[in-house]
């Protein structure tokens, strides 16, 4: 075989072999280096959800909380050490994000089939997709090729992840800061069709807001969430009362009937500019699924570390 005789051809060959994609992610990134990646992850996610359906929600949320803090770089997975404080104890995460043991199980299974190849950041992206699919939601091809960060930021986690007290304009600007549109924001919020929230995050909404179906609040929520701060703070209620473990469009139907659990949820249907989109998702799961998939892909594109930046962690909980 004749060897290429110019430096661009060598550069292209070098990049092909090393998988340097010039900052771009691609769906076939591990096709050669880890052909069994997808079934390996799907198997562990499937068993975890079979054991506890809520785990699918927790795994989906991990990806969101990873991507919103300095990009999808696995930073949320780093444990604190005596010299380093990670993101796990930031306000939106503390006593709240879960699923780290499942990510550990996935990482060990993946290391067995292709050691040192697949980043924790990519594992989070595939795991989020597999969780949505397992609970009845849409499927999509996940873009891959992210590397893992060597650091994390408690402060950025506190600042960049929107709190449930947010109003529509706060929400819009937090997403805009990540390059996501208002439509992306509404579609992604549909993730609240699965999973649970703690009383401390919806107490004000059920006792003090007026834009909530009063009989729903009285019968379904007040009994699990005492009025007094500090009592029953960790009691749980489903974000979607109707079908809490099915990924469908009933979150949007709830909003239209003033049954959002979080203040921030009901902000999406409260007489403002996003009402019409919420209505259209409430009447078409096809429209919701299609916009959700586009928005998940966009969220997965937030500031990835690629090529020679970052590393592939051996253990998702610590830098190599
Ligand atoms: C729009 C801004 C958002 C706000 C203010 C918000 C806020 C929250 C809060 C307060 C909880 C309950 C946490 C607890 O009580 O411990 C929660 C749960 C959850 N969030 Fe969000 N969230 C937002 C967007 C998203 C997005 C974009 C996704 C994913 C694409 C997502 C996925 C989830 C899931 C699945 C749960 C349930 C987790 C579980 O049961 O373990 N959220 N969110």
From TrEMBL:
Q: What is its EC number?
A: 1.11.1.7
As to how many cofactors bind and how, the note says: Binds 2 calcium ions per subunit.
Q: Which InterPro entries match?
A: Haem_peroxidase, Haem_peroxidase_sf, Peroxidase_pln, Peroxidases_AS, Peroxidases_heam-ligand_BS, Secretory_peroxidase
Identify which top EC class this enzyme belongs to. Answer: oxidoreductase
Query: Which Pfam families does the protein's record reference?
Result: peroxidase
Q: Where does Ca(2+) 2 bind?
A: 193, 240, 243, 248
* Keyword annotations: Calcium, Disulfide bond, Glycoprotein, Heme, Hydrogen peroxide, Iron, Metal-binding, Oxidoreductase, Peroxidase, Secreted, Signal
Q: Check the record and name the PROSITE patterns matching this protein.
A: PEROXIDASE_1, PEROXIDASE_2, PEROXIDASE_4, PROKAR_LIPOPROTEIN
Give an example GO molecular function. metal ion binding
Principal location class: secreted
Compartments annotated for it: namely: Secreted
Q: Where does heme b bind?
A: 192
The family assignment reads: Belongs to the peroxidase family. Ascorbate peroxidase subfamily. Belongs to the peroxidase family. Classical plant (class III) peroxidase subfamily.
Q: What is this protein called?
A: Peroxidase
Organism the protein comes from: Rhynchospora tenuis
Lineage, top ranks: Eukaryota, Viridiplantae, Streptophyta, Embryophyta, Tracheophyta
